[in-house]
Amino acid sequence: MRKRACFSSAAVFCFMFLAASLCWAGNSWENIGREMRNARTVVVDPDDVKNIYLGTDRGLFKSENSGESWRNLFLSKTKSIGINFLLFDPADKNIIYAATDSGLFCSSNKGLKWDRIFKGKNNFEVDCLAAAVLRGVIYLGTKQGLFVSRDKGRSWHKEQGKLEVAQIFHIVSFSEELKLLYLACSDGVFKSIDSGESWERVFVSTPKDNGGEEGNGEEDQDEETKYSDIRYMAVDPNNPKFLFLATSRGIYQSKDEGISWSAFSEYGLLNRDISFLLCSKEAQLYSVSKSGIFAYKAPAWEELSFGFSFKKVNFIALDKNNTFYACLDSGLFRLVSEVSFKGSEILTGYFNNEPTISEVQREAIKYAEVSPDKISRWRKQAAKRAWLPSLKLNFGRDTTDLWHWESGSSAIGQSGDDLLRRGKDALDWDVSVSWDLSELIWSTDQTSIDVRSRLMVQLRDDILDEVNKLYFERIRVKMELDNLSIEDRKKRFEKELRLRELTASIDALTGGYFSQYLIKSN
Fold first, then answer.
1. Gap between the Cα atoms of 303 and 294, Å rounded
2. 125-139, 271-285, 423-437: which has the minimum mean pLDDT?
3. Dist. CA 360–CA 363, nearest whole Å
4. Which CATH architecture describes the domain 28-344?
5. Where are the domains of the chain?
6. Which residues on neighbouring strands pair with residue 393, listed in sequence order?
7. Whole-angstrom distance, CA of residue 183 vs CA of residue 165
8. Sheet of 157-158, strand order
9. pTM of the full predicted structure?
10. Which of 65, 146, 183, 318 has CB 3.0 to 4.6 Å from 159, enough for a Cys bridge?
11. For 400, how many CA atoms within 13 A lie in the half-sphere containing its CB?
């Protein structure tokens, strides 16, 4: 019964997983900022989604018609100002903050006029990377420390301790009632529950002056990220206890405000070095790596960045209508959904010449020797044992020296008269047969079988779960390969390499059955 349940659930999982994959595969991207190269950050007006603010390495631009045309908002007379982060004041939607490599700028009229309200004392402090506003207090993250202003930017205070020299990558604030702040920096993740009056480190990271671990070969890391494993963080907007941390070693999650952390799923990700995370109001999690943009659809990640090639994704964002934006080196892109699902006609093509999931499951169970029939056989054999007698064979040998006098011959001249001789050993044996009929009712072997049965069921479920994930992720990778253009050689190579890795993993669980089936069917 349990076996049928596993197979039926796998079928449901197959349909849902592939349907979701097809929906994402139908997405297309529209470049709405071709003339704006090296897009770094974007923010959409919360009151009017037609107003888009785009930060690049040479200034700030605004579109009032959903990206059809753009105009420059401000440029320095002496040099171009790189925009690193844009933020609307949560209490006043007319106020916009722009964290730049030349300080923090503020506009109180949605970008018509700008004033610089912060300029650091050195080249590191002037390079602003992140900003947040909570209860009228401005929190500014730079390449060298965290600065706080409680009078709308007229004066600034620099935090001491670990936050005095750390590079601040991201700051997240919540409602005024919570007074809660999270901060991701080169030294770890910090939390404040009193609007920044005090900070507690909840995730530790050691800065690396050599750009990461020795021998990693990553020479193209950004200046602001190469000194730490931490890249970015995201917090569930509906539940501030749920944290997600992007690092060079994968994604970590915490469900208790950073008290404990665990590794998040990597299924479907082509690269563990995650540079950006985003969590929507619907609790949809997105990630960015060198391999592309991904959305998490349990139990795996699905790639969204089909249809265009890129060197790097710098930033992703959502507007209030959940329209997806991506800042790339080649401009600003917007995700346009073109969902088309043709049902079994599409599905059938990807399952041609391949074993079914039920066949792969049976082979995995057979190879691991965790079949339910094995437990049934043990129980039957234990029940029959009571009818078999216990046979005992006893054998004894008496090696006592039995000496006796032996009279000799009376003939004259014969020797050996009246000799003391040693007798033969005494041997004895017996056979006994017995039955323990109480074992017909209960056998002590049943207890041992019960323990082994539970362990075997757990092992079988783990194997089936692993097979299901590998099998359907392999189908999804095949679909993604079909959607790649021939020119995109790098991503095609990564997908084909992942396809072979998944095939090898399934072979390891089935004793090579999967590859043998593919060879025979082709």
1. 4
2. 423-437
3. 5
4. 7 Propeller (2.130)
5. 1-26+346-392+444-522, 28-344
6. 431
7. 14
8. 128-134, 137-142, 145-149, 157-158
9. 0.65
10. 146
11. 6
